[in-house]
Amino acid sequence: MLIDTHCHLDAAEFDLDRDVVHAAALAVGVEQILVPSVAVDRFNCVKTTVAGYSGCVAAYGIHPLFVTQAKESDLAVLRDWLRREKPAAVGEIGLDFYVPEQDPLRQEFFFVEQLKLAREFNLPVLLHVRRSVDAILKQLRRIKVPGGIAHAFNGSRQQADEFIKLGFKLGFGGSMTYSGSTRIRQLAASLPLESIVLETDAPDMAPAWLAGRRNAPAELIRIAAVLAELRELSPERIAEQTTLNARAIFPKIDLGQQYTQ
Questions:
Q1: How is domain 2-249 classified at the CATH fold level?
Q2: Whole-model pTM?
């Protein structure tokens, strides 16, 4: 069994063949998929997606690259969804300092307010951390949440260790499959295996064998095989441990079920 801890199965790229994509994932052993949202106007689509496909669970949040069009009142909408829907996590939230036209102060405002909501509802968070790891760690030390995942981690070993100290797992996916991604591959090979979870970020972040094409959750089995090769372990051992790691972050989730009180 494998868990894809970050897959945008609700994305428009899957509208024509979502059934086939989901079935292909199940066929190779990807039995659970965590589907994060990016904006309040996608919440209903995420909800419909996870309701219609076995093993899928939702996260609700406002992505840092969507805060430009977000309103402060969207935070009240998010709070209501977290209260009513009891999702797996708050996400995808965070900071992105790679895109120059984004307002970092506005990003930080929405990030901090969403961390407060995660704390209020005792939910883990799915973090977008592109070029912003230190700024994110600063807020996580200030606003304590029950762990989560640093999605698509691409920081230093020291930064990785800080996330681990705060109760976070680190997400590895398609980037790890490129031979030129030496830092990511070194981290994947050397970090404690108990700190790693697997993800696709489909339809984005395609692995090396799909470069420039649409990614899909079924690719997680080959991504897991790359991690197994890097660590000189069996694919079965990688699947077993990364599944345990994901369940440690989301302990109340059963396959295809949302949180229950």
A1: TIM Barrel (3.20.20)
A2: 0.96
